[in-house]
Design brief:
Helices cover 42% and strands 27% of the residues. By secondary structure, it is α+β, with helices and mostly antiparallel strands. The protein has one domain: Double Stranded RNA Binding Domain (2-Layer Sandwich), CATH 3.30.160.100. Helix 1 packs parallel to helix 2.
Length: 124
């Protein structure tokens, strides 16, 4: 697919968190890795949340939603720093996309019973 004809969309939003321009560009640069593996992605939405009432190790939560042809994919990660949460989220979404691609490829290459019926000679 040509990227000019099908521009992918990355939406970044903050919940109880002021998004800085550097944080937005960090998320967009990291999200480009997802488009490299799967060009059928329509939209990636990343929600960054800061909850000061949580423990320090789970203060920042990054939620990712990938809208793709087929079932959508969702993931959530908590960390002590916002940038670290984003990096872990993108890694997790990337693994999910790779797993999905391998499963689709394996499904295409699986031998079906109907394929074997014509290949097996009948007993006389």
């Amino acid at each position: 697919m040509n990227r000019q004809n099908n521009p992918q969309e990355v939406i970044v939003s903050g919940i109880h968190l002021d998004l800085t321009p550097s944080l937005k560009t960090f998320v967009q640069e990291k999200a480009e890795r997802l488009f490299r593996h799967q060009e059928r992605i329509i939209r990636v939405r990343v929600e960054l949340e800061c909850d000061p009432k949580q423990a320090v190790s789970h203060r920042f939560t990054a939620k990712g939603h990938i809208q793709i042809y087929g079932p959508d994919m969702n993931a959530s990660v908590s960390a002590d720093e916002c940038h670290k949460a984003v990096a872990m989220l993108i890694d997790k979404l990337d693994r999910m996309i790779e797993r999905r691609a391998h499963m689709v490829k394996a499904k295409r290459q699986r031998i079906r019973v109907t394929d074997l019926e014509g290949a097996v000679p009948e007993a006389i």
